[in-house]
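Handout, section B. The chain below has 344 residues.
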Amino acid sequence: MFRLWQEIGVDLGTSTVLIYVKGKGIMLNEPSVIAMGRDTGEVKAVGNEAYRMLGRTPGNIVAVKPMRDGVIADYDLTEKMLKAFVRKVITGPGRFFKPHIMVCVPSGVTEVEKRAVLQATREVGARKAFLIEEPLAGAIGAGINIAEPTGSMIVDIGGGTSDIAIISLGGIVVSESLRIAGNEFDEAIVRYIRHKENLLIGDRTAEEVKIKVGAAMINRPEEVRELEVRGRDLINGLPKTITVNTEDIVEALKEPLQRISEGVRRVLEIAPPELVADVIDRGIIMTGGGSLLLNFDALLRQATGIPVAVAENAIDCVALGTGRALDMLHVLQDALTSDNFLRR
């Protein structure tokens, strides 16, 4: 059936916003950053352009991340950022009609946080607004048939939260949301290098280190890589360059990764035994950018004794699932939160 309005799925992440447009696929993948005039409140840039400004703005401009731990930290800035992103992707005749928008949220969000996301989505100009929990969206995006009476386990590692859930019959049976994910990995790397080398590095440098030489564990000698890192010497205040390797990053990430592993084990411990049996047969699926950390799947396999696989399109899974969920409202009606929630 032809619809004049566009249907949009939004992965409103702490680090990145991805937007899926029905019939077109992923149309936007940009950092969750907005740059504003400090005095005027005027939007100077969003996304990639604003990200390049982080830590480099003059006094009259401020670049910030309005999302924290998977939820809205600054309502006004999030609304302005989301509005700018939605304008980028709405094209053609449909731009004259308000879109239907599905936004994903972490599985542990409170009613107040849900209300804030829905309100921001309506302010953006949505004709209808829906919320879906991230593990459910990730499962749909990974190609899992969530409607069948079989247990599927999803571990979604985003920027601000790690969402762990067992799904069956179109809903989440048991879940846990941890505010430990990609950003916490970056902070752990910053702390480790500061403690070990007396060197202060920025979050962007830490993220680069994580991507280029990071790992959850080392299985083979050839997996050890090196990278030169520049920062400020904390003793004399001067610029300094050091070399870090994969072994350093494994040590730096040991604690946050252990807490995620414990979270996965807790969800398995409280799940109904029939669903755990299904998970043992089908394995655990990992989604989200954080799941791409080298050997993270092997670490969870070691911790649980269950096969673990990273979804083929791990970064896009949640955004794809969020968009596709608009075609599954009949299946997901009990699992979604709609804008009727605002009228309570």
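Note. The mean pLDDT is 92. Compare this with the example in section A.
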